[in-house]
Amino acid sequence: MYTEISLDNLRVKKLPHIWCAGCGNGIVLSAILRAIERSKIDKDKIVFVSGIGCAGRSSGYVNFNTLHTLHGRPLAFATGIKLANPDLQVIVATGDGDLAAIGGNHFIHAAKRNIDLSVIVFNNFVYGMTGGQLSPTTPEDSFTTTTPYGHIEEPMNISYLAIAAGATYVARETIGNPLMLEKYILNGLLHKGFSLIEAVSSCVTEFGRRNNLGDPAEYVKFLKDKSIPFSKVNSVESHDGIVVGEFVNIEKPEFVTSYYELVKKVAK
Amino acid sequence: MGKNKVIVNKDYCKGCGICVSVCPVKILKIGEDFKVEVENEEKCIGCGMCELYCPDFAIIVKKGITV
Ligand SMILES: Cc1ncc(C[n+]2csc(CCOP(=O)(O)OP(=O)(O)O)c2C)c(N)n1
Ligand code: SF4
Ligand code: SF4
User: What pLDDT is attached to residue B56?
Assistant: First the structure.
């Protein structure tokens, strides 16, 4: 049923993937692949761009045109690709560190421009690949290798930031609800403009282990139980849990279209 | 009603146990080789939850053909 769709879109020779047992990244990646399949996008036109990190490894497994870039820079590469060839469907897979820490300014400005990119951020609250250091989204009071006594800062709300910066499609869902996650990714793929789908994922090894969430199944259940529907609180943020839903879905002038219109006008 | 088949790819399965926890009829378990095993396959309702939640693309459910 679902797995066959994923396998049809994967470089199966590269499997099994490197992700730890019970890592949520595979659940997010299957949701992305099912959404791509449902979108009926011409697969030859897809460019799947990723940065560096565990989430960033996803570009190595998907059977499209792919680009594994630099840490924090997938949006810079994606912007170049989309501007050079607007016919391409550019999808970006990134981590919370990749997108919101080292890549934070690229993120803000890509959203501000409303460039037609579909960005899926695998938010696992930590730098997974490098050994579990804090990331911008690390929750207050939680333990990481660089916050051994508990984190004293409030986490960054990636979706909130995307909305403030000007993104025209913003949604959040956790791996506790893979079908809704798939639906939001599909909506993002079909949306013209900057779409940001925040996929709240799990890092059992580096985050879970230090925060009583070492069991993969319990981690998934925890994220599901912590989810609060947007319709209930009417806010992107809640101290009681993780607000999930479609936050923004609006039309605004798109950067690449405006750019080529300007080129035409000036060339006259 | 046809029977559903649950096929586990042991080369991909890492034994994380997520599918075991989401199966509504509790027919999956982690075996001695630390990989998932199917018990009482005939009880499978073909819901596909195990596939949706498997992070390793390791389970395929073939729905039985209903005549
Ligand atoms: C310029 C640069 N700085 C630092 C690193 C080291 N580095 C690799 S991945 C990573 C963070 C990964 O965290 P995140 O983006 O959240 O992805 P995850 O591994 O959790 O999926 C860092 C700091 C690097 N590769 N390049
Ligand atoms: S370190 Fe964390 S994010 Fe990376 S593969 Fe392992 S569980 Fe997943
Ligand atoms: S399809 Fe549903 S009932 Fe059958 S094994 Fe998977 S989770 Fe259990």
Answer: 98
The three state secondary structure string of chain A is CHHHHHHHCECHHHCCCCCCCCCCHHHHHHHHHHHHHHHCCCHHHEEEEECCCCHHHHHHCECCEEEECCCCCHHHHHHHHHHHCCCCEEEEEEEHHHHHCCCHHHHHHHHHHCCCCEEEEEECCEECCCCCEECCCCCCCCCECCECCCCCCCCCCHHHHHHHHCCCEEEEEECCCHHHHHHHHHHHHHCCCCEEEEEECCCCCCCHHHCCCCCHHHHHHHHHHHEEEHHHHCCCCCCCCEEEEEEEECCCCCHHHHHHHHHHHHHC
From A17, A18, A19, the mutation candidate for ligand 2 (largest count of ligand atoms within 8 A of CB) is A19
Q: A5: pLDDT confidence band, cut at 50, 70 and 90?
A: very high
Residue of B nearest to A174 (CA): B53
Number of inter-chain CB pairs under 8 A, A vs B: 76
Ordered by where they begin, the domains of chain A are 19-267 (3.40.50.970)
- Tens digit of pLDDT for each residue in A159-185? 999 999 999 999 999 999 999 999 999
Cβ contact (<8 Å) for A21 and B54?
A: no
**What ipTM score was computed for the predicted complex, to two decimals?**
0.95
| Chain A neighbors of B18, CB-CB under 8 A | 22, 216-217, 220
Share of chain A above pLDDT 70, in %: 100
Q: Mind listing the pLDDT tens digit for each residue in A78-100?
A: 999 999 999 999 999 999 999 99
Residue nearest to atom 2 of ligand 3 (CA): B47
Check B56 against A26: CB less than 8 A apart: yes
CA of residue B59 to ligand 3 center, whole Å: 10
A221–B16 CB contact, under 8 Å: no
Residue A149 is predicted with a pLDDT of 98
Q: Mean pLDDT throughout A52-59?
A: 98
